UniProtKB/TrEMBL annotation:
PANTHER family named in the record: ATP-GRASP ENZYME FSQD, FUMIPYRROLE BIOSYNTHESIS PROTEIN C
Single GO molecular function: ligase activity
Pfam families assigned: ATP-grasp_4, ATPgrasp_N
Sorted UniProt keywords: ATP-binding, Ligase, Nucleotide-binding
Organism: Kribbella qitaiheensis
Protein name: ATP-grasp domain-containing protein
PROSITE patterns, per database record: ATP_GRASP
Residues covered by the ATP-grasp domain: 119-317
Length: 419
């Protein structure tokens, strides 16, 4: 890096996530911030963007993060703390709280991390949302579903990316899918003794809004329309971000967004809010105390020019975010999967010949020899590739994704049974 301002704020970043999904954030932040990173192993590709790093035994241990951060802060004062990994946002809040930095409200972040606490806070302020009841057993779930009326949604209390979420239309379907909602987890997920929500089904189409919050003021910078697949499971198979989306001028929607943040008591940071647009108006599905995943903020950057990484870094350091769009495009992403469970990939590739100019990225996520499955077994981590496209219209963007899908070829064979 050359010709960098010597007064760049010192930003602590906790973990990174996959390079293919998160490098664009570091690329944006690095020229304007001195980044120190906490990781659980030596950095590799990250070194291009960071000024220093600390390797910890675990970046999931809040106490260890706090100890390391205090030591770093004593030597090189930290101006802000940032994390975009769902499994580590609560621990990061502990660090910010200890150092007296923006976002250092553990209870605030936990009201986002714990979906039951989210529902409770929204209900107390009358923010529109599906009715939601926390249950412990399948029998409790059956009684609750009868009261709410089918269909209902079963949802884990503290996962992300629609993991473990399923729509059920009857008592039999509920019983068949109870273990999926109850037992789906990831290694970093928090443990709750009572961990399943039974929720009223909100009929409509789902969107997400990424926002920067500075001293309680909510500034949305990326609105995405979600594409779902593999019913009754809610696998997110794609997203579209339109800089000219009419929903951005929907006063009722924006009021719900602002009211939801006020209900949560969210004062400083970035959020990814999911909202269902129903015939009765917008209803909040959840609020995540981090920037969105699935390349959604990247699509926003390409479609509008408003930089999500710089916005997140600014509010983390107590600075007003600068979110000035300089273009009006449409960005889209689509994810791809194998057809059958326990497929061992032999090859995955895109044929780039003849693809339209709207294609932005063609990304292969899995190498030959990897065993994978489609949803629900391969939810999220079953993706073998993705493509992004940027165009002047939604139709052209979708056409680009369609062309890339036709250009994707993969082959595989069934994994041999171990029995």
């Amino acid at each position: 890096m050359t010709d960098e301002p010597i007064d760049r704020p010192h930003l602590l970043v906790v973990a990174t996530g996959m390079r293919l999904f998160r490098e664009y954030i570091l690329r944006s932040i690095a020229p304007q911030y001195r980044i120190h990173m906490f990781l659980h192993s030596e950095p590799s590709w990250e070194k291009e963007y960071i000024d220093g790093w600390t390797v910890l035994e675990s970046t999931l241990d809040a106490e260890a993060l706090v100890v390391a951060a205090k030591k770093l802060h004593a030597d090189q004062p930290i101006d802000g703390v940032l994390c975009w990994d769902e499994a580590r946002i609560l621990q990061t809040a502990h660090v910010a709280e200890t150092l007296g930095l923006p976002g250092g409200d553990v209870d605030m972040v936990n009201r986002c991390r714990d979906k039951h606490l989210t529902r409770t806070a929204l209900a107390e302020r009358g923010v529109p949302q599906p009715q939601s009841i926390l249950v412990d057993t399948v029998d409790e779930a059956l009684v609750t579903a009868d009261k709410l009326g089918y269909p209902v949604i079963l949802k884990p209390r503290a996962l992300a990316a629609s993991l473990g979420v399923v729509k059920v239309n009857s008592a039999e379907e509920l019983k068949d899918n109870w273990e999926f909602a109850h037992d789906t987890t990831v290694p970093e997920a928090p443990h709750y003794d009572v961990k399943v929500l039974v929720e009223e089904f909100a009929d409509g189409y789902e969107i997400s809004i990424d926002s920067a919050i500075f001293h309680g003021q909510v500034t949305p910078f990326c609105l995405a329309r979600k594409e779902l697949g593999y019913p009754p499971y809610a696998e997110e198979v794609g997203h579209f971000v339109d800089a000219a989306d009419p929903l951005l001028a929907d006063h009722e929607l924006m009021k719900v967004l602002v009211d939801a943040h006020a209900a949560i008591g969210f004062s400083d940071g970035v959020t990814h809010t999911e909202i269902m647009i129903t015939a009765d108006g917008p209803k909040v599905i959840e609020i995540n105390a981090r920037i969105g995943g699935d390349m959604i903020p990247y699509l926003g950057l390409q479609a509008t020019g408003a930089d999500p990484g710089l916005a997140a870094a600014a509010v983390a350091c107590g600075r007003t975010p600068e979110l000035v769009p300089d273009r009006a495009m449409v960005g889209g992403v689509r994810f791809f999967y194998v057809d059958e469970n326990d497929t061992v990939l032999d090859s995955v590739a895109f044929d780039e010949a003849g693809l339209p100019a709207t294609i932005d990225q063609l990304v292969v996520l899995m190498e030959p020899g990897t065993t994978t499955s489609p949803p629900p077994e391969g939810t999220l981590w079953g993706r073998i590739a993705y493509v992004t496209a940027v165009a002047t219209s939604l139709d052209d963007c979708r056409a680009g994704l369609d062309a890339a899908e036709k250009a994707l070829s993969w082959s595989g064979h069934q994994k041999e049974s171990s029995s």
